[in-house]
Amino acid sequence: MRIACLHTAESNVAVFARVAAQRGLTLTHQVRADLLAAAMQAGGVTAELAARTGNALLDLTSDADAVLLTCSTLGAAAEDIAGKAAVPVLRVDAALARQAVRNGGKVAVLCAAETTLGPTGALFEKAAQQTGAVIDLRLVPGAWAAFLAGETQQYLAMIAAAADQAFSEGIDVVALAQASMADAAALCRKGMPLNSPSAGLDAIAAVLARSL
User: Fold this and answer.
1) pLDDT tens-place string over residues 195-205
2) What is the CA radius of gyration of the chain?
């Protein structure tokens, strides 16, 4: 099974490669930092940017059994073109949302980049309608600035602290909405948050297994 990943941050390549190796999955990677940069400059995802992202995803389908979009800001683009693609095209955070709301309860969804608040909030609220889960969307102040500055350990520590705070408040499930947050889970002390690389790769592997 060949799974092509479209990333918007170079650092996510190693995150997904590690999770894939644990599952025996074969990934290829394309990094398009320009797509996320355009979203940040525009303050969100424009129609033109969604189309560019969709075209990048479709290009990857020519040499893959499935394609995974790992950027939560651009996630809706995967849904937009899924029906046009010859192979499955998934957004990585869709499986995370389903997993987070599965048992209802209070779900804190942590974001670092402001551009992902809208897409992520809409995704989780839609998923929550099926189970009655209550979504608490939270932006971790200063975290994205640390990420962009290359202060990875500080970034992960800030995410972990926000997750621990949510667990301390009685939140049932904490979801790390952005793939770049995944390694913060190992730093948490109050509970184990869910992350999108694990959820997304499990979901796409299940889709491919059903097609065999």
Assistant:
1) 999 999 999 99
2) 16
